[in-house]
Amino acid sequence: DTEVTQTPKHLVMGMTNKKSLKCEQHMGHRAMYWYKQKAKKPPELMFVYSYEKLSINESVPSRFSPECPNSSLLNLHLHALQPEDSALYLCASSPGTVGTGELFFGEGSRLTVL
Amino acid sequence: GESVGLHLPTLSVQEGDNSIINCAYSNSASDYFIWYKQESGKGPQFIIDIRSNMDKRQGQRVTVLLNKTVKHLSLQIAATQPGDSAVYFCAENLSPHGNNRLAFGKGNQVVVIP
Predict the structure, then answer these.
(1) Tell me, what's the pLDDT at B4?
(2) Which of B21, B64, B66, B105 has its Cα between 20 and 30 A from that of A8?
(3) Closest residue of B to A91, CA-based?
(4) How do residues A93-112 score in pLDDT, each as one tens digit?
């Protein structure tokens, strides 16, 4: 299994809602990542988890809350988002955090905040 | 919000011709450089990487060239096929010895004309 699976594929939420994005991989990878991608823009790193511990938070607002329940799962909890947070949220994994930078990306969750 | 009319640099190439995509990077201390391909509606997919102690690396139908003097990276695709139509991002690994912090370039759209 060489896939990173993200759910849901599409999500529409209001500014007062609480929702979660989920990511799963069964490649035995020990590093997982959240990226945000706006239309026509490159992916921007949000969070890095290494061995289930948060190792990088790229100054992401607290309305985004990551969680890594185990080495296969990564969640992104969303609360009180703004319309400008509408974007494609990409999850990725890699065998470890030391390496060339080859990440395995999921297809993303497209989020629309109304 | 999004800029109206924002678009990616676009390379239109005839099927069967070779494509060259260029990228400038900023950090002279970066050790690894990576090319990713992102098809419409999908997450980025690793193509090839190159370490800073190399000038050239070849894969299947792809070659990456690195010019450290002018901080320039290029991706050559031989005999371009319709399936090569995508957005191509270069990335530099800002911390290959821990955390795999990737900084993506702006992206280039490749359109293959059958």
Answers:
(1) 42
(2) B105
(3) B43
(4) 999 877 778 999 999 999 99
Nearest to A80 by CA among A65, A58, A102: A65
Instruction: Tell whether the model's pLDDT for residue B3 goes beyond 90.
Output: no
pLDDT classification of B2: cutoffs 50, 70, 90: very low
The position carrying tokens 């293959």 is B112
> What residue in B sits closest to A97 (Cα-Cα)?
B99
B5 touches chain A (CB under 8 A): no
Ramachandran area for residue B61 (φ above 0: left; ψ -120 to 50: alpha; else beta): left
Q: Give me the amino acid identity at B48.
A: I
Q: Return phi, psi of residue B8, to 5°.
A: -90, 150
Where do we find the tokens 């992104």? A76
Give the closest of A39, A97, A107 to B43, CB-based.
A107
Residues in B touching A92 (Cβ below 8 Å): 43
Structure tokens at B57: 């690396």
pLDDT in tens, B59-85: 999 999 999 999 999 999 999 999 999
Rg (CA), chain B: 14
Q: Which residues of A touch B93 (CB under 8 A)?
A: 100-101
Structure tokens at A55: 């190792």
**Is A59 within 8 Å of chain B by CB?**
no
Tokens coding B96:
């290959």
For chain B, helix (H) and strand (E) counts, in that order, are: 0, 10
Is the separation of the CB atoms in A92 and A32 below 8 Å? yes
